UniProtKB/TrEMBL annotation:
<feature type="coiled-coil region">
    <location>
        <begin position="66"/>
        <end position="136"/>
    </location>
</feature>
<dbReference type="Pfam" id="PF00430">
    <property type="entry name" value="ATP-synt_B"/>
</dbReference>
<keyword id="KW-0406">Ion transport</keyword>
<keyword id="KW-0066">ATP synthesis</keyword>
<keyword id="KW-0138">CF(0)</keyword>
<dbReference type="GO" id="GO:0045259">
    <property type="term" value="C:proton-transporting ATP synthase complex"/>
</dbReference>
<dbReference type="GO" id="GO:0012505">
    <property type="term" value="C:endomembrane system"/>
</dbReference>
<keyword id="KW-1133">Transmembrane helix</keyword>
<keyword id="KW-0375">Hydrogen ion transport</keyword>
<keyword id="KW-0813">Transport</keyword>
<dbReference type="GO" id="GO:0046933">
    <property type="term" value="F:proton-transporting ATP synthase activity, rotational mechanism"/>
</dbReference>
<dbReference type="InterPro" id="IPR050059">
    <property type="entry name" value="ATP_synthase_B_chain"/>
</dbReference>
<feature type="transmembrane region" description="Helical">
    <location>
        <begin position="34"/>
        <end position="51"/>
    </location>
</feature>
<keyword id="KW-1003">Cell membrane</keyword>
<keyword id="KW-0175">Coiled coil</keyword>
<keyword id="KW-0812">Transmembrane</keyword>
<keyword id="KW-0472">Membrane</keyword>
Length: 190
């Protein structure tokens, strides 16, 4: 801030007049032109801000912001570490997934073989039971047929014998037969 000397201002005004320019003189108050007054006003404003602790408030606000940003950076670093751990875990699981799939497939094939083997055993047992049941039915049918044939044969023999007896025996022959039977009974009873 240079103070203005009235002589310098007059000299400056004379130089401008010689150059053909209009004379322009800045107004001064207490020896300061407008630039000087603006400079003094800025100094006063800065001193008031320092007195009211504005720089400290700005500094503390900046410190808080810096702390918040550091906290966010720390949190981001922690999240990144967690993400990398999860990624490593899933990569390990993915690597093991092929082996697990093979093991599951092997177990499934073993179980399928056991199921097929059991089904074959069950089918064989069922076939055997049905065969035995069929044999039992056939044997029962044979026994029934034999009994029926015997019954028909006995019936036919009885009918034939009755016809023969009727044809060959008369009442006198029956009387002789009855008498001989009765006498045989007497001998047996005594």
């Amino acid at each position: 801030m240079a103070e203005h000397n009235p002589m310098v201002e007059q000299l400056d005004a004379d130089m401008h007049l010689e150059a053909g320019e209009e004379a322009h003189v800045d107004q001064t108050a207490l020896g300061f032109d407008t630039t000087g007054w603006v400079a003094w006003a800025m100094i006063v404003v800065i001193l008031i801000m320092i007195w009211k602790k504005v720089p400290q408030a700005i500094g503390s606000a900046l410190d808080k912001r810096i702390a918040a940003i550091r906290g966010e950076i720390d949190e981001a670093a922690k999240l990144r570490a967690e993400a990398e751990a999860l990624k490593a875990e899933y990569e390990a699981k993915t690597a093991n997934a092929g082996e697990e799939a093979k093991a599951i497939l092997a177990r499934a094939q073993e179980e399928a073989a056991e199921i097929v083997e059991q089904a074959e055993k069950d089918a064989d047992a069922l076939i055997e039971r049905r065969g035995k049941l069929a044999e039992d039915k056939i044997a029962a049918a044979e026994r029934s047929a034999v009994a029926e044939v015997r019954a028909k044969a006995a019936s036919a023999a009885t009918a034939a014998a009755a016809a023969l007896i009727e044809a060959k025996h008369d009442a006198a022959a029956d009387k002789g037969l009855i008498d001989s039977t009765i006498s045989g009974l007497d001998a047996r009873l005594n």
